[in-house]
Amino acid sequence: MQFIALTSIGIENLLVDEIKEQGLEVIKQSVGSVKFEADNSQAQRFCLVTRFATRVMLLLEENAEIKTKEDLYKFARFQPWQEFFGPKQTFAIEFNGTNQALKNTQFSGLVIKDAVVDYFNDLFEQRPNVDKAEPNIRIVAKLNKSHCMLYLDYSGPRLSDRGYRTRQGKAPIRENLAAALVKRSGWLNDVSRPLFDPCCGSGTLLIEAVGMANKVPANINRKFAFQNLPSFRPAKFDEIKQALKSEVTENNLWIMGADFDERVINVAQQNARRAGVENLIDFSVKDANKLSQVAKRSGVVLSNLPYGERLGAMAELINLYRNMGLGFKKYFQNWQLALLGTDESLFKLLKLAKSKTYKFKNGPLDVALYLYDVNEKQVSQSQEKTGLNFEGSSAFGNRLKKNKNALKSWIKKEGINAYRLYDADIPEYNVAVDIYNDSAVIFEYAAPKEIDDTVAQKRLQDVITLTSEQLNIPAENIAVKVRKKQKGDAQYNSFDKQNRVDVVEEFGAKFKVNLFDYLDTGLFLDHRLARRYIQQNAKGQRVLNLFSYTGSASVHAAIGGAKSVTTVDMSKTYLKWAEENFALNNLKNPRFRFEQADCLKWLEHAQGQYDLIFLDPPTFSNSKRMKAEFDVQRDHIKLMEWVKKILSPKGILLFSNNKRGFKMDEVALMGLGLKAVNISDKTLSPDFKRNKQIHNSWLITHG
User: Fold this and answer.
1) Whose CA, among 79, 411, 446, 582, lies 20 to 30 Å from 306?
2) Contacts 24+ apart (CB under 8 A), 81-86
3) What angle do CA 193, 194, 198 make, to 5 degrees?
4) Alpha-carbon distance 138 to 91, whole Å?
C-alpha cells in the first residue's frame, strides 16, 4: 500500500531518512510531505516511532480527473468503502482545494458524503452516520485543479502532539520541529556529551532529546485511526509495541535546562514528569543574560531563543543576545551551539561565525537554526571587534548627554518627569527618545527605502545600547517601537502584553502610562503646554475633549476647576484608561462624563453649549460619516462648522493636529464667523523646540 506522511517545511529530508531507517521505500518527496510504500504492520510501526511526521494517510487513489460535481460524485461513489469501514461506523469528510466548477470546499465535501452514503445504502440498505468531531473513519480529499487525491486518515490526531504538554511557555515549538532541531544540532552523534538549553521554556527540546537518545517510540501510548479499520489485528499490534519497547535503551544522559521564569520551569518539570523523563533532565531558574559554566567537558547548547513577540521588547532582546554572545565565548569554549530564531540581525550580536544554517517553519513563522563552533579562533577574532557598529554612534551618545544637560534646569523647575530627550537630531539616527521616570521609549521612524535594512537594524542596536549606557537605564526598562502611519483600527491594537504601568506627573496632574503594550504610551508629551492652557482657563467652564485618547486634557480641565467635563473617544480601552486617570487624581463628579462614540458622528449631531473645547483630530480617519476618509487638511472647515454650533458665544476652541505643513483656511473660517490665532510656538515646550512641525495649534473664537 502507498502512504503519505505530512510534516512541516524544512523537515522533509529528516522524514525521508526516518522512513528509510524503518526499511520502507520512499516513492516521492514533496514540500511538506513524503510518499512511501508499506504493509499494514510496517505502517503501524512507523506511526508508533515517527518523530518528524505530523500525520500519516493511506492513499486510496490519486490523479483522478475531476472537472464537475458529477465527476467527483462518481469518483467517490465507486470506491470499495466496505474494505475500510461498515454502515454502523461513523465517518467525516475533510476536503481541500477548488477548481472552476467546484469552488466551495464545504459543498465538495457534501458531494463525497452523499456518494459514500449512497454506496452503503445500495450495498447494505444501511447508511453510516457523519460525526465531524470524533469519527471512526476520516476521509481526506485534495483537489488540485482537475486532479483529485483520495486518502484515509491512518494515524489520527496530530502526531506531533505527544501528550506530555498541557501547558506551554511563550513562543512554543511543535514537538516534531523540536525533534528536527535535536537531530540537526548534532548532539545525537554522541549523547554522552552535555546538552544545555539556557532558554528552555516548557522543556520541549530537552524532552524530545531524551526520547530520541534512548530510542523511546514517540507515540507508544496513543490511539490511532488505523485501529478502527477492519484490517487491524490487536494481537499483532501488541507484538509490534512490545518489540519497540525492547529496543529502548537507558543511556547515561547529562541534560540541563534553564529559564529566568520560575513558573515556566515548573511547567517544564510537569511536562517532563508526564513524559516519564523527570529524573533525566536537570531544570533550574537562571537568567540567560548571566551565563556561567554548566559542565567541565564540552557539549552542545540547543535553544529556541526569545524573539520579539511583545511590542517594545527589542531592547531586552539586544541586551540578551549580546550578553549570551559574551557568555558563550567565556564559558562555552569548544562547545557546539544550535540556536533557533527569527531575526538574523539579532544573531549577529553574538559576534560568532555560523558554520551552518537550516531553515524551518514554526507555525506561520519563518525560523532558522544557526550552528556555531565556539573554538579558540572564533573567540580571539570576536574579541578584536568593537561593540558598536558605526563611527556616528559616539556622536549619538554625545548628543544624548548634551540634550539632557540642556534640559536639566527646565526639568527641575517645572517638576517634569516625562519628556523628549532626542528627536532625529542626527539624520543617520532617525529615532525619538522619550524619558518616563527611570525608563525610556525609543520610537524608530521608518527608514527611507534607500537605506539598507541591515544598516538600519545595526544603527537601531547602537541607539539602544547607547541609550542604556549613557542614561544608565537597564535594557528591560527600554521600550522600542516603530513609528509609522496606522491604518484603520491598527492604532487600537495591542501586542502580547506585559501590563507594566507607571505614573508620571505634570503641573500637578498624575497620569498612568504603559510604555510596552501599545504603540503610544497613554500620554502625548508634545501637548504638555496645551494641557496646561486648558487647566489655567477651565475654571467654571463647560469643557469638551474630543478624540480624547486617555483623557489627559480632561484631567487638567477638572483640576483647573471646570464646571463640567465631557470626554469623548471611540475606544473603550482609552475611555477606561481616562476614568483611571481621573481616579488617580481623586477627581469625582457627576458632571465628569465619558462617552464612547465616533467623534465625527458625535460632533455632527452634538447638542448643548461648551465654553472650552479641545479638538485634536487624527490626520486621517476612515469614519463612515464622511463622504470619503477624513483628511484634516481637506475637512477641517467641516469640523469648524460643526463645532460652531456648540461653542458658546464667548467660548474658545483649542484646535490642534499633527499634520506637517497644515494650512488653516482662514477665508473659509471667516465665512463661518470664526477667527483663529496660531499659537503653535506657545505650545512647544523646550524638549520639542527642535521639531517645530510636531503639531499645529490655534485658538478659535466667534468673530
Assistant:
1) 446
2) 81/116, 81/119, 81/120, 82/120, 82/123, 83/230, 84/137, 84/152, 84/229, 84/230, 85/128, 85/136, 85/137, 85/228, 85/229, 85/230, 86/124, 86/128, 86/230
3) 150
4) 6
Q: How far is CA 560 from CA 108, 508, 533, 565, in A?
A: 68, 10, 10, 11
614, 545 in Cβ contact below 8 A?
A: yes
Distance from the Cα of residue 516 to its chain's centroid: 14
**φ, ψ of residue 684 in degrees (nearest 5):** -100, 110
Residues facing residue 443 across a β-bridge:
432, 481
**Within a 10 A sphere around the Cβ of 253, how many other Cβ atoms?**
18
Q: ∠ CA(531), CA(536), CA(541), 5° rounding?
A: 95
**Secondary structure of 295-347 as H, E, C letters:** CCCCCEEEEECCCCCCCECHHHHHHHHHHHHHHHHHHCCCCEEEEEECCHHHH
Q: Would you tell me the crossing angle of helices 204-213 and 262-274 to the nearest 10 degrees?
A: 30
- Give the integer Cα–Cα distance in Å for 418 and 387: 30
DSSP SS3 for 237:
helix
Per-residue pLDDT band at 501 (split at 50, 70, 90): very high
Q: How confident is the model at residue 494 (pLDDT cuts 50, 70, 90)?
A: very low
Q: Indicate if the pLDDT at residue 388 is higher than 60.
A: no
The total of other beta-carbon atoms located within 10 Å of residue 685's CB is 21
Sign for the pseudo-dihedral over CA of 229, 160, 248, 2:
positive
Cα Rg for the chain, rounded, in angstroms? 33
Q: For the residues of 592-646, what is the DSSP string, one character each?
A: EEEEES-HHHHHHT--S-EEEEEE---SEE--TTSSSSEEHHHHHHHHHHHHHHH
Q: How far is Cα 218 from Cα 207, in angstroms, rounded to an integer?
A: 11
Which DSSP helix (H) or strand (E) runs through 499? Answer: none
Side-chain-side CA neighbours of residue 5 (13 Å): 35
* Full-model pTM: 0.79
**Taking a C-beta distance cutoff of 8 angstroms, is the pair 632, 561 a contact?**
no
Backbone angles phi, psi at 133, to 5 degrees: -80, -55
Burial zone of 238 (CB within 10 Å; 0-12 exposed, 13-18 middle, 19+ buried):
exposed
Q: pLDDT digit string (tens) for 292-311?
A: 999 999 999 999 998 866 55
**Which parts of 393-481 fold into alpha helices (H)?**
393-414, 453-471
Query: Judging by DSSP bridges, how do beta strands 696-702 and 674-678 pair with one another?
Result: antiparallel
Quick: pLDDT tens for 13-66.
999 999 999 999 999 999 999 999 999 999 999 999 999 999 999 999 988 889
- Residues 436-448 as b/e (b if ≥16 CB within 10 A, e otherwise) read beebbbbbbeebe
Residue with cell 475531476: 66
Q: How many Cβ atoms from other residues are within 10 Å of residue 662's Cβ?
A: 17
- Please name the residue ranges forming H helices in 193-313: 204-213, 234-246, 262-274
CA distances from residue 10 to 218, 366, 681 in whole angstroms, order as listed: 20, 10, 58
| Alpha-carbon span 313 to 689, nearest angstrom | 29
pLDDT in tens, 535-588: 999 999 999 999 999 999 999 999 999 999 999 999 999 999 999 999 999 999
What stretch of H or E contains 162?
none
Q: Helix-strand-coil percent breakdown of the chain, rounded to 5?
A: 35, 25, 40
Q: Are 605 and 524 in contact (CB under 8 A)?
A: no
CA angle centred on 530, ends 529 and 534, rounded to 5°: 115
